[in-house]
Write a structure and sequence with these properties.
The protein contains six helices and five strands. The protein is of the alpha/beta class and 138 residues long.
């Protein structure tokens, strides 16, 4: 099973653009073909961002998808000592922390938000790079 942490922008883009790489990732998440690594902070951010009126997403659909993702997810246990600081956006810390704890890649549309020197060895992939990896593992 392929596991990864998915930045909120990938989830939002998957809802808004179902035919691009984020849309494919969302399909895989719904089908259980990939497993999201999460913690409560990430789930809270997904729910908060997807509820924003600017996106106009049907909240019943959002709730169903989030329930499926949570049900199939691997939950990361993050200790206070493993907190990541100094990222351009402090709200991105949970994503790096979960990826580091689980030893999985972080998939994001905002690579520049995750400078290598601050990510503790976490591999950061774009959605297109993640798709290539999935296709290579067949």
């Amino acid at each position: 099973m392929i596991r990864a942490v998915f930045d909120t922008n990938v989830i939002v883009a998957g809802f808004l653009s179902p035919h691009g790489p984020p849309g494919q990732i969302m399909d895989w998440l719904r089908q259980g073909a990939v497993t999201a690594v999460l913690d409560d902070r990430i789930v809270h951010e997904y729910a908060e961002v997807l509820a924003r009126p600017v996106f106009g997403l049907p909240q019943a659909d959002v709730a169903l998808v989030l329930d499926v993702i949570k049900e199939q997810a691997e939950w990361a246990d993050i200790s206070v000592s493993s907190r990541i600081t100094g990222l351009p956006d402090p709200d991105d810390g949970p994503f790096v922390e979960c990826a580091h704890a689980a030893g999985v890649p972080l998939v994001t549309g905002n690579i520049r938000h995750f400078p290598k020197r601050l990510c503790g060895g976490v591999e950061v992939l774009t959605p297109a790079e993640f798709l290539q990896r999935m296709e290579a593992t067949g």
